[in-house]
Write a structure and sequence with these properties.
This protein is of the alpha/beta class and 241 residues long. It is built from nine helices and ten strands. It binds adenosine-5'-triphosphate. Adenosine-5'-triphosphate (ATP) binds next to strand 2 and helix 1. GO terms for molecular function: ATP binding; ATP hydrolysis activity; branched-chain amino acid transmembrane transporter activity.
Length: 241
């Protein structure tokens, strides 16, 4: 579904992404693993049209080229991003934040059904619909950010470090919701440093280092890969079943 080939990206003289090729199949969950500064956020920003690529980059969703697509058109193509830091509007209520996600043409008419799905996934939001977002906990704000992305009726949901700064029990709750979202048929492209829990919901994963893809395998193979264990996991795994 999402095909990225030979993606290169520069910030001035700094080559942040170097010949990166990544794909996400229909309804597939794919995780990009890598240390700080590896280029993970830049990859998601490139797909969202928020940064310009260079070189021989090819990027498409079901054959529709994403290169040169204006960023505000990307949600119309069926791609939603939950950015690092969430990007929600603190002075707006939960409902207002959610409705901001419903602007693409593909989301029109389905707002009520999507709200129902979101409140089923995150009952805490249903109880706090009129609450100002800035007064909510970090975990609840992340739920608002994911909910807002779902309001756009995406085929591909991209998440940039959704677990960042959250307590383990909240992370477990969020990832259980992500697993349910994937069961609704939405493909997920997940950038994470919490390797254990992200591999637990993923089909496949890529390892990224200094702007390059240095490994790729099924999630189960990566989970037991000694190199991954040593670099990220400290010998532990998470069971979400
Ligand atoms: N706007 C920018 N201008 C200049 N350099 C940037 C910019 N954004 C990112 N970089 C650099 O590009 C590299 C990749 O950054 P990126 O944020 O994509 O990495 P990351 O893997 O997501 O890291 P993190 O987990 O810390 O967010 C880093 O060296 C970073 O300093």
């Amino acid at each position: 579904m999402l095909d990225i080939a030979n993606l290169s990206l520069r910030y001035g003289r700094h080559l942040a992404l170097d010949d990166v090729s990544v794909s996400v199949g229909d309804q597939e969950t794919v995780v990009i693993l890598g240390a700080n500064g590896a280029g993970k956020s830049s990859l998601l920003k490139a797909v969202s049209g928020m940064v310009k690529t260079s070189g021989q980059t090819a990027m498409s969703l079901d054959g529709l080229s994403l290169l040169n697509m204006p960023p505000h058109k990307v949600p119309d193509a069926g791609i939603a991003l939950v950015p690092e830091g969430r990007g929600i509007f603190g002075e707006l209520t939960v409902d207002e934040n959610l409705m901001l996600g419903a602007h693409p043409q593909r989301a029109r008419g389905g707002e009520a059904a999507r709200l129902e799905l979101i409140f089923d996934l995150f009952p805490k939001l249903a109880e706090r619909r009129k609450q100002m977002a800035r007064t909510m906990s970090g975990g609840e704000q992340q739920m608002v950010a994911i909910g807002r992305a779902l309001m756009s009726n995406p085929r591909l949901l991209m998440l940039d470090e959704p677990s960042l700064g959250l307590a383990p029990i909240v992370v477990t709750e969020l990832f259980a919701a992500l697993r349910r979202i994937r069961e609704t048929g939405v493909a997920l492209l997940l950038v994470e440093q919490n390797v254990s829990i992200s591999l637990a919901i993923a089909d496949r994963g890529y390892l990224m280092e200094a702007g390059r893809i240095v490994g790729e395998n099924t999630a189960s193979a990566l989970m037991t890969d000694p190199a991954v264990q040593q670099a990220f996991l400290g010998g532990t795994t998470t069971d979400l079943s």
